[in-house]
Each structure stands twice: as C-alpha cells, then as structure tokens.
Amino acid sequence: MSSAYWPEGVERCSAGKFLVWLAAISVFLAWGGYAAFQIFSNGIGVTGLDNYFGFGLWITFDLAVIALGAGAFFSGFLRYIIRIDELKNVINLAVIVGFLCYSGAMLILVLDIGQPLRAWFGYWHPNVHSMLTEVIFCITCYCTVLIIEYVPLILENRKINQNKFCHHLAHNFHVYMPLFAGIGTFLSFFHQGSLGGMYGVLFGRPLVYREGFFIWPWTFFLFISSAIACGPAFTMLCGTLMEVITGRKLISYKTKALLAKISGLLLCFYIFFKILDTYAWAAGILPGMGLTFDEMFSSEHGYGKGLLWAELFWFGLLPAIMLVLPQVRKIPALMYLAAIMAAIGVTINRFVFTVQGLAIPVMPFDRWTTYYPNWAEWSTSLMIVAYGFLVMSLSYRYLPIFPQEVELNKQA
Amino acid sequence: MQAIEFKVKWGMLVNLDKCTGCGACTVACRAENNLSPEVEAGNKLRTNDWMNIYELSNGEPFPHHEVAYLPRPCMQCGKPSCSTVCPVVATTKDEEGGIVSQVYPRCIGCRYCMAACPYHARYFNWFDPVWPEGMEKTLTPYVSARPRGVVEKCTFCHHRFMAAKERARMNDEDPTQLAEDAYIPACAEICPTGAITFGDLHNPDHEISKLVASPNAFRLLVKLGTDPQVYYYSEREWVRKLGDNYLKNDKGGENV
Q: Using CB atoms and an 8 Å cut-off, which of residues 156-195 of chain A contact chain B?
C-alpha cells in the first residue's frame, strides 16, 4: 500500500491518478530532453541565440527563477535567525521551491555554456575580479546548502524515518539548521547581488551600467532587494497553486498573509530605490555616454518604453502598495493577484537587463536587433518547470512538508 | 580598474577615406586565422568575421549622399570590458604589446565577454568548424582551430608577433624594439589601398605614432572609457562623428 509512505494523517489521490499526472509531466520532460540531446550533440547553434544575443531566454529564465527562489534563503533567515515563528509553516515548502529554482537554473546553465565539461574551471581558474566567478561560487555552494536542507525532509518520510539512523540523522540536521540557514543567507545575499553586479559593471552597455558603492554597482543592491521582495510572495503562490491542484488546504491564510506583508514591505523599499536609480541613470549616466533616455528604447523592435513603465508601475509600485495594505491582503484574490504581479515585475526586470541591454546599438552606425528564442530554448525551459512539478509532486505525496495540513483539513 | 601600461603597445589605424570596403582584410583574416567557411551565412548575426566591415552613411539624400566603410577588428582596449568579466581568466590583457588574449582551451563558453563588448568584436562557435575535404591543408599551422562552444576574436595575428620576436632574437635584435614592418597582421598586409597602418603606438619611429596624433584620427566609443588601441582616420567630419555618441550640440569627443 502506497498510503503507508504518505505523511501521517493525510489524504492523497489514488496511484492511478498520480501516474496520469506524472505522465503529463513526462511529456514536457521528454520534449526538453530531446532538445537537450540536440544541443549536446550538435552545439548551441540549434537555439535562437546569436553573436549579438549571447544571453537570451535561458539567462532570463535563470535570473528570474533565482530571484523568485530567494524565498528559501530569506524565509530561512527570518525563521531561524530573526525567529519569526509563524514561518515554520512554510519553511519546508520554501526550501523545496528554492532547491528546485537553483538546481533548475544550474541544469539550464549546463546547456547554456558552450563547454559544460569545463564548468569546474570557475573553481580552478577563478578570476577574482569577475562578478560571474562569485556567482559560480555562491550558486554552487548555496545549491549544496539547499540539498543539505532538503535531505532531512526526505529522511522524514514515514517509512524512511522508521530507520533509526535516518531518524537520528534527520534530527541532527534539524539541530544544525540555523547554521545552514545562516550560511545560505550569506551565500544567497552575495550571489543575488553579484547577478545584479554582473550587469552593473558592463560599462560598454549603456542600459545596464551603473555606478555604485565601493566595488559594487547599484544593481548589486537592487537585485538583492528585488529578490528578497518577490521570493516570499512566490513561495506563497507555489503553496496556493498546490492547494488548487490538490484541492486540499495546506497553509493557513494567516501565514500566507504574513508572507504577502513581508513581500509588500520589501517591495516598497525596492521600488523606491529602483525609481531613484532609473532617474539617476537617465539623468546622469546616459548623458555622460552621449546618449539619451529615448535612445534606449525601440517599440518597433519590441523593446519599447512600455516595458519600463510596466516594470516600475504596473508590476512594481502597484503590487507593492497592494501587498502592504491590510485591506487588500484580507481579500485572497487581490492578494494573489498582487503576488503574481510582483513576480511578473521581477521577471520583466531580469529580461530587460539580459536581452534589451544587448539589443541596443552602442556604436552609432549599428542597428537595433531583435531576439526570438526558438523551440530548443522554450522546450528546455519548460523541461525545468516540469522537473519542478515532478519533484514537488513526489515531495507533496510522500514527505511531511506542510505542518498545518492535518489540522486545516480536519477543520474543513 | 587599474590599466596596465605597456612599453610596447601595438596599434592599428584604418584610413576610412582610403578604405573601399572590398573585404580583402576580412578574407585574409579568415585564411590566416583558420576561420572555417560558413556553412549557412544567411543570418549575419551568426557569421564569424573577426574583421567585420560596417557601412557608414551620412544620411543625406542624393546627390549629397556619401558612404564610408569601417573595418572593425578587436579594439584591443586599454581598459577592456571583456577580460575583467571573464570568470575563468580565458581572456587577459597582461602581455607586453597590449594585445587582449583569448585562451581557447580555457574558455567555458559562457559568452559574458560577448555581452560586455560594445563593439561586437567577439564571436561564438555555435557549431563545430568544418572544412571541405582538402581545404584542411590550407590551415595556418601556427593558429589553433577552435572547437564549438568557445568564444574567439581578432588577436592582431598574435602568432605573427611571436614569430617576429623570435626572428629578432635570432638576429641579435631587441624583440621589444621591432622595426616598422617586422610584425604586421594579415589584414594590414593585404589591404590593396594601404588603408591599414600597423605598428607600435609608443615607438616614434613607427608611422602610426605620428598618424594617431592627427586631428583627423579618432577611436570608437571613447566616452565609455575603453581606451581602444585601434584608431580610424577620416578628413570628413561626419565620418569622425560616427565614432561616438553625441548629445545635441555636444562636442567633447575625439577630434570632432
């Protein structure tokens, strides 16, 4: 009986239904797997990338999921270091979402770099002046931390936990969890920042170049703050999506509203500085390069000002105000909508920095270019989403992720 | 970032008033540096030309319309935007001569350097290079062919620099004081109109050191702070003005 493996006191769907669900996920895994095979066999030439757009959908996808996956380290920081007890109800979910986002991003990177077998060169021949070196260090180390945080969850499976060694191991992992939460916070803060710094240091790219504090461009701090602002909201959205799919209550609304409030406050902080930064960039940096604000946009090529206004106001300021207002947080639909808007906002930000930054002609005699990702990039990105659904489905079915589940469903 | 000052600084000056855009420099570069023939060259954002030629226009209607052709090698920037960002030290500017290196066996193919370079001087090997049967016999033995998945770029025919230094040592000459034509890249050698001048920017005996001081000499995008070692020359102001971005009524670029 597979129910013997389920967490204690919960209901799960039948094995047949679960297998149908896994089969649906497998379709996307197979499609992405085929594209990955083509890429490894023939080269990255099978994608829509080119010499102008060395970065495209994959890097946008990576940056977006890493920002949205920030819920893991930030929730861990608030739960174990700041000791907000309420967050114990979502910490397991946050860890799994974070693990999926980071491991997914790393899988995409394996496809994205031209020589995946040389990926370890980042450790062997590190350039200490490169923000990307720091990103390689921290992402790989933090992914290891997330694995360490995920392992005790697996060990808590009802059957596995009957094994004495596994039981004690899981217990000891939990005892040292604040230490890992601290390490995770440190690593995550830095690589979220370095991802922003990666763009901010590009003094040959007017859209993304920024001045800053000491060696860190302002984008360093903006990427950290946007990630910690959207991470908790995204974790909350993942939990809600799981509730919709499973038809069961998993997290109390009070906990969700707390995550939304945390996101709202941080989003207000972020968007205030983002607007200041945009003004300083338009008024200070661009004229110094002999460029104007208008020259940074071309709606004809798909990179109009609408993207900037959407990022700053419709998917930035507006969700920040919505999430910070208690009246809005009391209405579930509005709260979820605001969280979705915030996630879209941070994704637009990462897209603009990654793709639009490369589309702008810097040499006056050059021209605007447009990038279209092709099937190989879409299918592999969807494969990673499917991988997330797969791991999350298995985790939900067999691991005690939601401490409130039994109680909430008894009430229902 | 602290820029290294070199005793010898190889530079190039392209006279855009002499350049006819014939493409001989591009062809010579391809042959010299073992660039494989393009299998499919329809998408120009995918083709690999270390010496790419841009067409400039003054934007005026006939009969005042004028064009110029601008060959664009790697600028070998004094303050490169690419080498500082490479995570694995696969591209550096640390050798006497000031040529920005590219270490193919170390490049992981992340393409961060391509994103950093505003001149689009860097190219990625999207597929494995293929030479039609028999053509492999024409490969230059001193230049390594690159596999797919690594970035490459113009190196000012660095292997010729190595050979010139070797010759100087054999002749008991100072390899840091090479004569005017002891080392020139393939593009400068082949140019039929003599539009490309090459030499040591720090050596007063080399013609280039005088040419770059001309009020008609300019470089590309100096406002960004890249400090390129490639110069251009034109007596036409509209051409010089296309070397950088200017605000309305703005001056302050190089010789505009």
A: none
How far apart CA B145 and CA A377 sit, in angstroms, is 28
- The answer to whether the predicted template modeling score (pTM) of the entire model surpasses 0.80 is yes
In chain A the domains, ranked by start, together with CATH numbers, are 49-371 (1.20.1630.10)
Contact criterion met (CB below 8 Å) for A339 and A263: yes
Q: What is the 3-state secondary structure (H, E, C) of A226-249?
A: HHHHHHHHHHHHHHHHHHHHHCCC
Question: In what helix (H) or strand (E) does residue B25 lie, and over which residues does it extend?
Answer: helix B24-32
Q: What number is the average pLDDT over the span B168-190?
A: 95
Question: Tell me: the pLDDT tens digits for A352-370?
Answer: 999 999 999 999 999 999 9
**Contact at 8 Å (CB) between B167 and B182?**
yes
Across the A:B interface, residue pairs with CB atoms under 8 Å apart total 173
The C-alpha of B74 sits at a distance from chain A's nearest C-alpha, in angstroms, of 14
Does ipTM come in above 0.90?
A: yes
The structural domains of chain B, ordered by start, are 10-241 (3.30.70.20)
**Binding-face residues of B in 186-245 toward A, CB within 8 A:** 220-221, 223-226, 241-245
pLDDT digits (tens, 9 = 90+) for A39-65: 999 999 999 999 999 999 999 999 999
Contacts of A24 (CB under 8 A, 6+ apart): none
Nearest CA-CA distance, residue B25 and chain A, Å: 20
From chain B residues 28-47, the ones with a CB under 8 A of any chain A CB are 43, 45-47
| Contact: B86, A131; criterion CB under 8 Å | no
The region, left, alpha or beta by phi > 0 then psi within -120 to 50, assigned to residue B225 is left
